[in-house]
Amino acid sequence: MSKAMEDTSNLIELDPDLYNEDLAPVAKEKRNWSWINFSTVWMGMVHNIVAYETAGSLLGLGMSVWQALGTVIVANIVLIMAMWLNGVAGAKYGLPFPVLVRAAFGYKGAHIPVLVRAFVAIFWFAVQAYAGSKAVGAVLGVLIPGWASLASYHVIGMGLNDAIALVLFWVLHAYIISHGMERVKFFELWAGPLVIILGLGLVAWAIYTADGMGPLFQEKSTLSGAEFWKVFAISVTGLVGTWATLILNIPDFTRFSRSQKDQVVGQAIGLPGTAIIFSLMSVIITSGTIIAFGRPIWDPVELLQQFDNPLVLILGAFSLLIATLSVNVAANVVSPAYDLVNLLPKKLNFVKAGLVSIVVAIFFMPWLWFDNAGTIFNILGAIGGALGPVAGIMIADFYIVRRREYSISAFYTKRGIYTYKNGWNPAALIALAIGLAASFIGLVVPALEVLYTYSWFLGIGFGFVSYVLLMRSVSQSMSESSVDNITSSVQ
After folding, report:
1. CB of 338 within 8 A of CB of 249?
2. Which of 40, 150, 367, 475 has the highest count of CB atoms within 10 angstroms of its CB?
3. What is the pLDDT of residues 394-410, one digit of tens each?
4. Which segments cross the bilayer (predicted)?
């Protein structure tokens, strides 16, 4: 029997510290996500306020429309390749990220990348929730007389009206999370397409405002040759950083796939396809704002308010609200929920862990620092740099060290082939340190500042190569059957 076909009923020595139902392999009969589900999940995740602002803010950095589109295309090609590579193991074994990462780091060592991933996801949840709450506030401002006057009362750094909108949006997240992964799947089926309708409406407005498509693409770049390439590198790294978290935990979704073909085709349609289209819409609309208002407006809520039409504002803001709920639950709650379950399998399940995550997110207080194009890309670069090495190590472990073969039983015992040295794999920890050093050396050494613009690429590359070399130094054999020798030699 293939290892991929092993059933949890055959697992030996199920350790309660490493196993519960949420961490178990998904049964074959429950792997029912088709390519349509993956397409709509990605559509829902891509079509959100932060992704819109990120693409539109490329014009704010001085790029032309064509330069901005080229940047987005390059970033999405990189992203889909990484998603495919790291999604295969999830679809093959039905296992989530916190379990799969044990193979490289050991069952104790895995807590490090899991905690980093959970921390970043919760951070992103806070950012998206704040961005979406502005849409809630815009609608309430139309419906409730005197809503704007509440801004004179301050609560932890924001107006009372903004605080109320934020709390209401948080409650909506809690409602969806409380119904588990099935609610996530069905919610995504209609959330993504709704945003496309809003986007198409704004594109039509931009074309009408500019008297055709031509003027929208004639805005000149303000960047010189060398200056453009520097901004291009920062922007590609930043755009990859937008989804660097999902590169790690894409197995949390592909574990439900009916087949490898479903996850490959679905992600191909949903990520580069809809992401590029959505980014094209964003830059066209933002270009239209330059013509209409004399400045780029990449905040869609601010743009909707420019129309001074209550119906347009309500319908548009509702679409943005649904879009943000969609991406936040799928991208920024699913992952930390599984991560926290992995840390406390005896006390938490998916729903409880998801609710804990959104409570912790409040403490990031994004309302104090959000709304700046330069800040967005600096944060995205840092996130990508932190998570790149982990992705490199996971990909190297599955494809090079393990030759695409894992032992399911060993994931749930403290005496298996993924035990290494008391649950820690020194090779993975050293590779992680090397990858992080490569990612951030440009941030701490002024003479190497240019390297920081490639933080994610350096992180994933150095993490990959150093892990392979370190594991080879332990044993020349990289087959699954020889890992016992690797373990004993490390110990």
Report:
1. yes
2. 40
3. 999 999 999 999 999 89
4. 33-52, 64-85, 105-127, 159-177, 189-208, 228-248, 269-293, 313-338, 350-370, 376-401, 422-445, 451-470
